[in-house]
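Async update (no meeting this week)

Hi team, since we skipped the sync, here's where things stand on the single-chain job. The sequence we agreed to prioritize is pasted below, unchanged from the tracker. I ran it this morning and attached the output directly underneath so nobody has to dig for it. Comments welcome in thread, and please keep replies under the output.
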Amino acid sequence: MVFNRPFHRRSLDRIMTAMRATYEELGPITSAGGDMLGGPSLDEETRKVVQSRRFREQAVRAARETSYYAEVFQRTGLDPRRIQFDDIASVPVTPKEALRDDPEAFVRSGARPHHRSTTTGTTGWPTTVWFSDDEYHLIGVLSAITFLNREIITPEDFVQVSISTRARLGVHGVSFAAGAIGAVMHAAGLVSPEHTLALLSERHRLPRHKPYVSVMSTYPSYLGQLIEAAREGNYQPNDFGLERILMGGEIITAGLERRAQEVFGPITLLQNYGMTELMPFGANLCNQAHLHYEPAVGLAEFLDLEGTGRPVGADEPGVVVATPLPPFRDTTVLLRYNTEDVVRPVTGPLTCDMRRIPASTNLLGKLKLAVRHDDGWVFVRDVVEALDSVDAVVLPARYGFWAVPGGVAVEVVARSDDAATREAIGTALEERGVPLRDLRVITDRADLQHPRPLRCDLREGSMAKLAEKPKAPTRKPVAQPALAGVNGRP
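Output:
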């Protein structure tokens, strides 16, 4: 990796095998061991040297081997062989539309594309990204190392993947990791919430594994549907053995976490930042809710919302512009890709457990879904954090908001449109700093004038029979399994 050489597939497999053997013999890796696996931290100057060298190598390959960047460097007159760290800002930002409209213009002529992965298309036409088979294997191994190192998935777990089957990379990362770690896995897809609840409450008798689904991967909006369906179906926390939920694709709120724990018990919601276009580059959430971007895997920049290319300062909102670096990315080359995800940079001195890694706040939402008003911006997180905190709002929150003179107007679906509900919602929005000028509370989602897209609506259309509501489980006392250290329920 130091010399940007491609990863050796068998070496990756040996690392994963050794980690699993160590876990089974000695138990989980301590925080000190995790730091060793992460490698030495880089000071600011060293980080710039490493990232500029890798960016330069990727830029040279992009100019020589992709039709998109060949035209970019010819048009701008930039010499990719001479790029230093301060020159990176001179490379034009790559808009999302360019990749979406012509994904093969970004594939290197010397690459060996094998897997076509697409975004789910929640906010527009799906974007295609091509990966080689070696890249796919690398993504799986890196996922497995991360999950086992952080005990997100352990050999005793029963893992269920409840995301869209079109999210191929997401399904692959979790399923590959589960297999490599020794857990069992079920790719359930996005079926009816009632069917998923029946799967989560189903008791199994597999040797050396927990009797209930203990780890689930899904979207926040789909978790909201599960919460509502569980309440309607009279499920109780002791009907499940769920311990951890891997979340992604949407904003996770404190209100959603609280309401999930009321239904499923003391579960942990785990999140990070990743997207198909950037894999395996992304960011991990620290113990102080910062997103930290691993500098060895990619370069993250935070640029102004107006599109001038100006880097933003601390506490100023900006879009994440990212470059996956070699040797982690080899087939689809992207330089300074505009993710359109809005964050605020976080600068030092940091005191969190990832303080040596570049950081931002957690996601504020997509720029295209934000609203600019007379005095600033309102982002999706501002609104959805407020709405999810109000129990009268049906999960997932179905809402819209738009600019009006002096602030924004908000519409939301609630269980009732009475005065108490309106007051609770209005107060929650104002406490989040939303300049509320008009509030429209409705009880039928069909009446929304400006509905926002949700990933839970990416339902598996070919599975119509699964929409039939299964019967609620008959609750019986559950004996502890014979295997020591494997609990029936948390």
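Quick observations from my side:
DSSP finds twelve helices and 20 strands in the chain.
Confidence is low (pLDDT under 50) at residues 462-473, 475-490.
Reply here if anything looks off.
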